[in-house]
């Protein structure tokens, strides 16, 4: 199966421009970037996609073994880059996709020219002196609570949504469509994300990186963002005024400005 | 009812304060601006303490993650969310299982101004939900145990024979598939029986059916029945005991010393025979209808051939070759090409290479068995 189909890849912007690939994090889909990517469409070739299980991706491609670690997701990113023949890409990764980008950039460094890491965390669970912000009980509680949230997804509705590209209004009528995901897949993604430990992968990154840290981010606190910036061999750390974990939605202008300053100095 | 019906005298204030649900108004940044009496009662928090704190601080840590990664993005993108389940921590530390609806009010510039939220006590619902989920999980576990039992056991191997299998249930394997494989010695490591089959349906009923057919085949094989006769007897079993109607099966018996190969297929795709130095070919003899499908007026046929030393017999299920909007012949051609391309690899590697090359979309179960006669 082509990665472009599997991951619902959408390409916009300037076909001759430098590629800029946006990767959404745990929770929703490529719609998370709707307020950010248009600012770059004149100068860059914009690549948007959904992780397998999210958004319009082909959930039938979900394989428990492949996606039992973030590597599987990173391999998908590399496949997309290969199918589109991208090089010198600006990879913009939010949340767990920041680390997915780190893994992709260490696998095929020649394809990635810059990394923008928004709210990154290489490990969420506290470990001795490293404070990821969560205990194991907290994460167990998250996985447990995910059973109660199906966000309007059901095995009966999924084929309706998937098979109706010619009736997009169907998708819009359905509640919570932007964060809809097969609950089993969502739960595995949550487990893999929040139990990941990719601290050791940071030192291998040769790509210049920008860490965008939000104030008061309950998922990726400041100390973690600073840790990431410290461990990356070539990085810049920028503190945003935006609060919360999703500045791409809550403070798009500030996010755009920070990315632009990094790629267009 | 007239306008001086006293029941119409309730004020907006009363409607708000004593509503049968909790009401919460927050600023765009999540700061609580107003709550109603019902919310105070349900949570034990006094409004004086609530106003000015953040909604997210009322949630347990797990809920805070979900709030940040799902609730807020949805609210921002849709302007509203419906039926999000979150636990609110009460003043006494216990949790209120809540279902939350929120709607965002925006100003003329389209900027979010306030968020209005209703909170429903979902304690009983949540408990019932958990029961249902537990029952579903339990059923899945039973089916998986059955499946493991059916697909387990060391395949026969010796200095002359190597059997490798590949199995993948459809859609990430949440439900037990309808395909099975089996391989066993018929005697002292001279003759082996190998099977691949596909029952109608999936899940726990399919697992039970497969179990019965698997045992029946083993029992019948141990009485010395050759493949064609074995399938006839299996037909009788399926009909008499109403088990496995329309199942497709490929059964083969190979003598590892002489290389004699006998085989029969009940409605099943044709096995592939790999011979060193020759192109792979399909074994088209020994074909008949699926199990217990129509009354047969002649014994089921069987095919006979030789498997060379270094040769491999490949059995598989239709998930490997059948594609929507593509004729079966195309899939079969493709399989032969890929088998040829990977014939030189070690047996287990050959199976995974072929599966990857056939590039299916995971919508069907996949089961392959390779019986290799060692040089």
Description:
The complex is a heterodimer of chains A (265) and B (375). Chain A has a single domain (3-263), classed as Rossmann fold. In chain A, 50% of the residues are buried. Residues 159-165 of chain A have low confidence and may be disordered. In chain A, strands 1-3-2-4-5-6-7 form a seven-stranded mixed sheet, sandwiched between helices. In chain A, helix 2 packs across helix 3. The longest helix of chain A is centred in the N-terminal third of the chain and has 14 residues, at 70-83. Helix content of chain A is 34%, strand content 17%. Chain A is globular. Chain A has ten helices and seven strands. In chain B, helix 5 runs parallel beside helix 6, helix 6 packs across helix 7 and helix 8 (328-342) packs antiparallel against helix 9 (347-358). Chain B is elongated and about 95 Å long. The longest helix of chain B has 29 residues, at 123-151. Chain A binds chain B through residues 1, 25-28, 31-32, 34, 58-64, 95, 134-135, 138-139, 141-142, 144-149, 151-152, 175-176, 178-179, 184-185, 194, 218-219, 243-246, 249-250, and chain B through 29, 56, 60-66, 68-70, 72-74, 76-78, 81-87, 97, 126, 129-130, 133, 170-174, 359, 361-363.
Structure summary:
The complex is a heterodimer of chains A (265) and B (375). Chain A is α/β, with parallel strands linked by helices and 265 residues long. Chain A has 10 helices and 7 strands.
Strand and helix map with partners:
The complex is a heterodimer of chains A (265) and B (375).
Chain A: H1 3-6, E1 10-13, E2 18-23, E3 44-48, H2 70-83, E4 89-94, H3 96-107, E5 112-118, H4 136-145, H5 158-162, H6 168-173, H7 183-194, E6 209-215, H8 222-231, E7 235-243, H9 247-250, H10 252-263
Parallel strand pairs in A: 2-3, 2-4, 4-5, 5-6, 6-7
Antiparallel strand pairs in A: 1-3
Chain B: H1 12-17, E1 22-27, E2 32-35, H2 37-43, H3 47-50, H4 61-78, E3 80-89, E4 95-106, E5 112-121, H5 123-151, E6 161-168, E7 179-185, E8 191-198, H6 203-222, H7 227-240, E9 248-255, E10 260-266, E11 272-274, E12 281-282, E13 287-288, E14 303-306, E15 312-316, H8 328-342, H9 347-358, E16 366-373
Helix pairs in contact in B: 5-6, 6-7, 8-9
């Amino acid at each position: 199966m082509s990665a472009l189909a599997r991951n619902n890849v959408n390409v916009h912007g300037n076909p001759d421009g430098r590629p800029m690939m946006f990767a959404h994090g745990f929770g929703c889909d490529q719609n998370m970037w709707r307020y950010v990517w248009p600012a770059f469409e004149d100068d860059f070739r914009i690549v948007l996609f959904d992780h397998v299980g999210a958004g319009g991706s082909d959930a039938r491609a979900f394989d428990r073994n492949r996606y039992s670690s973030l590597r599987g997701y990173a391999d998908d990113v590399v496949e997309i880059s290969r199918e589109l023949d991208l090089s010198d890409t600006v990879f913009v990764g939010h949340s767990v996709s920041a680390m997915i980008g780190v893994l992709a950039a260490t696998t095929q460094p020649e394809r990635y020219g810059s990394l923008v890491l928004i709210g990154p965390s290489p490990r969420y669970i506290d470990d001795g002196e490293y404070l990821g912000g969560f205990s194991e009980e907290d994460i167990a509680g998250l996985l447990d609570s995910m059973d109660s949230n199906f966000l309007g997804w059901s095995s009966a509705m999924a084929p309706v949504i998937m098979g109706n590209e010619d009736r997009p209004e169907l998708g819009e009528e359905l509640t919570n469509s932007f964060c809809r995901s097969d609950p089993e897949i969502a739960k595995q993604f949550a487990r893999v994300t929040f139990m990941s430990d990719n601290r050791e992968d940071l030192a291998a990154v040769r790509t210049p990186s920008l860490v965008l840290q939000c104030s008061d981010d309950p998922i990726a606190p400041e100390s973690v963002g600073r840790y990431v910036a410290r461990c990356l061999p070539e990085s810049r750390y920028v503190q945003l005024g935006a609060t919360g974990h999703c500045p791409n939605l809550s403070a798009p202008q500030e996010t755009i400005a920070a990315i632009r300053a990094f790629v267009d100095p | 009812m007239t306008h001086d019906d006293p029941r119409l005298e309730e004020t907006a204030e009363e409607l708000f304060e004593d509503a049968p649900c909790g009401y919460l108004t927050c600023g765009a940044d999540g700061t609580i601006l107003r709550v109603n009496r019902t919310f105070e009662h349900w949570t034990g928090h006094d409004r004086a303490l609530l106003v000015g704190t953040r909604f997210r601080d009322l949630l347990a840590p797990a809920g805070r993650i979900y709030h940040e990664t799902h609730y807020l993005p949805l609210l921002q993108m849709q302007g509203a969310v419906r039926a999000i389940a979150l636990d609110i921590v009460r003043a006494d530390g216990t949790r209120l299982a809540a279902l939350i609806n929120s709607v965002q009010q925006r100003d003329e510039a389209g900027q979010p101004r306030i968020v209005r939220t209703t909170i429903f006590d979902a304690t009983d619902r949540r408990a019932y939900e958990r029961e249902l989920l537990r029952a579903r999980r339990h059923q899945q576990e039973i089916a998986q145990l059955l499946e493991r039992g059916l697909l387990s056991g060391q395949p026969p191997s010796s200095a002359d024979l190597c059997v490798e299998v590949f199995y993948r249930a459809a859609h990430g394997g949440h439900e037990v598939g309808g395909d099975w494989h089996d391989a066993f010695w018929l005697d002292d490591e001279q003759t082996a029986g190998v099977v691949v089959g596909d029952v109608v349906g999936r899940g726990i009923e399919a697992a039970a059916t497969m179990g019965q057919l698997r045992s029946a085949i083993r029992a019948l094989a141990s009485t010395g029945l050759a493949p064609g006769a074995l399938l006839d007897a299996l037909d009788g079993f399926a009909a008499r005991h109403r088990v496995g109607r329309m199942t497709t099966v490929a059964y083969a018996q190979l003598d590892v010393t002489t290389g004699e190969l006998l085989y029969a297929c009940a409605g099943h795709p044709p096995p592939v025979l790999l011979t060193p130095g020759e192109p792979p070919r399909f074994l088209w003899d020994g074909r008949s209808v699926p199990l217990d499908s129509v009354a047969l007026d002649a014994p089921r046929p069987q095919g006979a051939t030789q498997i060379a030393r270094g040769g491999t017999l490949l059995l598989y299920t239709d998930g490997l070759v059948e594609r929507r909007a593509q004729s079966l012949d195309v899939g079969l051609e493709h399989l032969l090409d890929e088998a040829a391309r990977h014939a030189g690899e070690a047996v287990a590697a050959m199976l995974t290479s072929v599966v990857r090359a056939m590039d299916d979309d995971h919508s069907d179960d996949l089961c392959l068995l390779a019986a290799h006669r060692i040089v």
